[in-house]
Amino acid sequence: MKRAVIAVISDLSTDMRVRKLALLMAEESLNVTVIGRMSDSPLPATDTGIRAIRIRVPFRKGPAMYMLFNLFLFFRLLFRRYDICVACDLDTLMPCYIVSGLFRKKLIYDSHEYFTGQYGLEERHFRHFLWKSAERLTVPHVKYMITVSDSIADLYRDEYGVDPVVVRNVASDVSHLEPRHRSEFGAADNMLLLVFQGSGINPGRGGEELISAMAMTSGVRLLFIGSGDVMDRLYRLATESPARDRITFLPRMPWEEMMRYTMCCDAGISADTDTCINQRFSLPNKLFDYIAAGIPAVVSPLPEIVALVKHYGCGTVLEEVTPEAIARELQRLANDRVLLHALKERALTARRELTWEKEKLREQELIRSVINSNYYK
Predict the structure, then answer these.
(1) Measured on CA atoms in the order 59, 61, 63, 69, is the torsion positive or negative?
(2) Distance from the Cα of residue 199 to its chain's centroid
């Protein structure tokens, strides 16, 4: 049996893109090992048949964390037998690229985002220079590449002449899950229960604006699920808000459990701001999670997100990401139950079309071509 290793710097238990890729490779009769980073509070792995290795790094973030993780990953790969290596994002690509080249192994680069266009990175000139240099040294020479949206694929094509396969973060089927009860959050049937979820609730995601907007609404309850760099600030803002009794925070949890909470809500919100090229062209996981849950999405006016929501009619688009604009849209949904019901029906239609069983076919075709190819790296 051929062996595959997937390298990722995120927590293995919450990165659904990596989990779906690992399961798909296992379906192709590959022996799959996923190497990730030990987080502060790791959740248990849930997929049987997939070996998981977590590298412990004595730093939670910053340059030292990236350098040490890549060094430890390099030696893990150096002494591990494998036929195919998948580097998830630029922060794992260099060790995967070097070791795959040394031992003539097949390499797939799965770019979960436009890494060098991340929020705040371009302003840190030296760090941006280092990451951009690593990208220029490796990406043009990668034959097999995957990314998350058409716009980001176009950026890589224009810059490096590569041709990534686009595999969106379409969620797995959740019809077998039992939704939680909205009464757990004190949400009456005539209230709008809104969810904001994610494992990367960071600056530029609209969390602060959303909490400020809640004070301008009535009949709306907000549920935060997840973790991120601004969570402490969001806790403080919520505590000081006149709407504090209508805002609930839940910690990061396994994806299936998070979806049970999402499924009991009336709508979800994705309020990323246009602060960088990566966010401008993103298609967030949470958007597909909302569709999988059968609930409409309130989204920021970013091109890829707007195109998908308008195509299926499965949500509404904010005029801008400000407290006032968010409050107006939430109050409109809370007051107009006919509109909310119509959007839910369209979300259910979108769920029938946007399935992982359909989306995975392109990734499956690429994996099969890599298995059968004699091309290395």
Answers:
(1) positive
(2) 8
Residue 257 is part of a domain; what is its CATH number? Answer: 3.40.50.2000
Q: For residue 342, give the amino acid letter.
A: A
Q: What is the 3-state secondary structure (H, E, C) of 99-113?
A: HHHHCCCEEEEEECC
On whether the pTM is more than 0.70, the answer is yes
Is residue 188 domain-shared with residue 122, that is, in the same domain?
Answer: no
CB of 238 closer than 8 Å to CB of 249: yes
Strands (E), the chain: 3-7, 31-37, 51-55, 84-88, 106-111, 144-147, 165-166, 192-198, 220-226, 247-250, 267-270, 297-299, 315-317
Say if CB 119 and CB 248 are below 8 A apart: no
pLDDT in tens, 133-192: 999 999 999 999 999 999 999 999 999 999 999 999 999 999 999 999 998 888 888 999
- Using an 8 Å Cβ cutoff, are 295 and 266 in contact? yes
Q: Indicate whether 242 and 107 sit together in one domain.
A: no
